[in-house]
Amino acid sequence: MRVNSLVLSCMIYLLKFCHFTSADIPNCAFEDTVELKKTHKQSNDSYVYEGVLVPAHMRGYYDYVELFNGVRTNVPKHLRGCVCQLKRCVKFCCSSGIPLFRPTKKAPVECDVDKKEYSPLVNITLPDSSRVVMNVLDKFVVQQGIPCGDGYMLLPHLYEEDQWELYENGTIVRKLDNLPRSRRDYCLTVFNSPLATKFELFPLYCDKVDAFGTIKISTTCMMISAPFLYLTILIYWVVPKLWNLHSKCLICYLLSLAIGTTLIVVINMSTSEYPIAVCATMGFFAYYFLLAVFFWLNVICFDLWQIFRGNISNIGHMSEAQRFRYYSLYAWGLPAVMTVITVGLQYSNLPAELQSGIGDTHCWLNTEEWSAMLYFYGPCLILILSNIAMFYSTVRRIYNIRREVQKLTQDDYTLRRMRGHQNNTWLFFRLFILMGITWLLETFNYLAGDWTGYEYLNAILNAVNALQGIIVFALLVMKKKVLLLIKRVICESIGKYRKRKTPTITTGNLNRPPIEGDEPHIQK
Q: Is 214-487 a domain of CATH 1.20.1070.10?
């Protein structure tokens, strides 16, 4: 009997507990709920929120809040009511009249403490597309909450693309993309418009987020990839048999990519805001080295192209040392000139949308503006397209020369030299496919902007681009010929080391004349 009573008591307790802790009000989206506090509780245990009676079946306990893009954040358990299904709602960021502010450029927005006098009148778009001016405090129930920390204000009096409309159901639409945003994904805040006599209501707009963790995935891939870039550089540096003009250009390419990648990783991995000077310095150095990546890839393509083209230019008659000097002047010099110009324009009186944004709103380029196309993606796109043209011309020339050589000569040396140039071309062609095409697709991804539906593809392309170091290592180092050369260098180094450590035995004492007393005593 005692056992049965104990079991029955436990079941009753669990049923009560489950009923008490049940979250998610049935058939009520989180964006339709408001927090019910003790001040809303009446003497008969009912709740009234801004004049709206909330029945018991439309109340529930929640241990989370839902922010922009459906991201849930755990919070202490609290009571909420499905008020917005009883009366239309509009969402404020803070308490009525409290503006937002951002402590620093990278910090999330916060509610201020000083209340401002503002106009609650807003143009509301009705279902028949007509627009009427409404007092939102009278016609709507006001929700409260900041959906994202990195949002920005829509200011149509300053930017034409910031035009917006608020609909009667609480949905907002930005005219730039005509994408509706529910109350979960925006909030209204007071702002002092220079065209108005008092504060007015403007939306805090949450832009597209990195829902698939693309930045985090890319940064992790770059962290894994960078050591392989440095290892490839080291191997090509210490193996003398690999030294030639192509390998020197390749080392410069890989060095630029390795340093640029490292700086981007440092920028992305920061958990706090860098000082402005440090941020700008890292950003401009990353800009310089990543520009140099494309110029050195262009040099590699040009060098292969001029080897196989019919009319040999002046540079074809130069020594490798002379050609490398000219190539270095081009591939290190032009990015330096472009970086100096970019720095100068960044700190000039140009409009913000025409500046690079390095060291201002970002440590890297501001890819949310078209200026990134002007400073980085545009020049890189031109270089990539020129590389494609040169590779196409080179491949055609290879096939033509190969046919002619096979018809006219069977000389082993000529055929071996031809095969060597051809192998180099196919090797760098594979590298170009890897490095050129992925950057080309990333440029198209930048041009696509906020187009949705390609998030998975974007994440994959960014990951492949970030893993270039591993793929380059596999193509350039994990080859039988290169591995044998590495083995030979290691064996020679070990042999020299052992030779230095082994004591030297001279033969001078072996043939010296006998000294009296040296003879062993023989017992008779």
A: yes
